[in-house]
Every structure is written in C-alpha cells, then in structure tokens.
Amino acid sequence: MKKFSVVVEKDEDGYYVASVPELPGCFTQAKTLDELIERIKEAIELYLSVKSEEKEKKKEFIGIIEVTV
User: Are 27 and 43 in contact (CB under 8 A)?
Assistant: First the structure.
C-alpha cells in the first residue's frame, strides 16, 4: 500500500474536486466528500495500473503555499 497526497477543493457549482499532485492528470470530482474519497482511490488505482507499464517518473509532493500579489 502507498500513501498519496490529495488536494481537495470546492468549485463554484458546489462539487468537491480532488487531484493528486504526484500523479499528473489524476483527478476526479463528486458531490460529497465520502463519494470523492472513493472516486479518488479508484482514479489512483487506475492511473497506477496504466502508468506501471510506462514507468513514468513520479513527482514528489512538497506542499501547498498561498501567496498574495
């Protein structure tokens, strides 16, 4: 089992959106957080099954910062 960092946001329509910074292009959305967690787990499993054949380098997630401009 591997752990992944998941970024969760809420869009303007009220949907929760999850993305995995370590896995480019791995994201999903749902109406509830419980549903979102299940969906992102499925998305990660699918991503890993496809990408394991390609041996793509994984990015390391460092964190999220907020800047004011």
Answer: yes
Q: What is the reported pLDDT for 58?
A: 65
Is there a domain that residue 67 lies in? no
Give the DSSP letter string of the chain: ------EEEE-TTS-EEEE-TTSTT-EEEESSHHHHHHHHHHHHHHHHHHHTTTTPPPPPP--------
Structural domain of 37: 7-51
pLDDT at residue 59 is higher than 90:
no
Distances (CA, A) of 57 to 20, 29, 51, 53: 14, 25, 9, 12
CA triplet 51, 57, 61: central angle to 5 degrees? 105
